[in-house]
Amino acid sequence: SRMNDATAGEVSGDDAEVDPDTLERRVAAGEPVRILDLRDRDATEAWRIDGPAVTFTQLPSSTFLQAEVTDSVAALDAEIDGDGPITVVCAEGKSSAYVAELLRAAGIPANNLAEGMAGWARVYRATEIADGPTVVQYHRPSSGCLAYAVVSDGEAAVVDPLRAFADRYV
C-alpha cells in the first residue's frame, strides 16, 4: 500500500462517505486530498475537483469491475496517484460508493463522495461583503463562479451566472 503512517487506517462505517461540504472545507484548507474519479476522461477534463493539495486520478469504473472478477482490486492502488485515503467520485455517488467498498474490502482506505459531482456542484460558500444594503457573495468552488445577493428592505436581487441555480436563493 502507498499510504504513509500519518494517514494509514481503515475507513469504515460513518467514514465510508464524505459529504461535499466537508470535502470542500478540506480542499480549501489545503489538506491533502486523493481523488479517484470514475467518470470518463472527457467529463473529468471539462470539470473536476481540484486544488493545490489535490492529487487526481481518472480511472473508469469498469477497471474496478474487471479487477473484482479477477480478485485484483488491491493491485489498483498502485495506479492511483498520491498517498493516504482515497475519495472516490462519480456523477451521482452510486458507482463511486460501490468502488469505494471494493477498495475497502481490499484493505485500501477509501470513501465515497456523497451525491458525487452533482453534490459537489451544490456547494456554496457565502460571505457578507457589505452592509446596508446587505451584499452577500456566494462562491461555488466546483466552478469558480461567484454570485451575489443584494438585500434591502425585505427584498433581494440575485446575480448568478448559472441561471439553473437561481432557485436555490429562495
Quick structural gist:
With about 170 residues, the chain is an alpha/beta fold. It is about 25% helix and about 25% strand. Strands 1-5-4-2-3 form a five-stranded parallel beta sheet.
Blueprint (SSEs and pairs):
Elements lengths: L16 E2 L1 H9 L4 E5 L3 H6 L7 E5 L2 H9 L16 E4 L4 H12 L4 E4 L2 H6 L3 E6 L3 E7 L4 E8 L2 E5 L11
Parallel strand pairs: 1-5, 2-3, 2-4, 4-5
Antiparallel strand pairs: 6-7, 7-8, 8-9
Please, could you describe this protein's structure?
With 170 residues, the chain is of the alpha/beta class. It has 5 helices and 9 strands. The strands form 2 sheets. It has a 5-stranded parallel β-sheet with strand order 1-5-4-2-3. α2 links the parallel β2 and β3. α3 packs parallel to α4. The longest helix has 12 residues. It is elongated. 28% of the residues are buried. The N terminus is likely disordered.
Properties at a glance:
elongated, 4-stranded antiparallel β-sheet, 5 helices, disordered N terminus, alpha/beta, 170 residues, single chain, 9 strands, 5-stranded parallel β-sheet
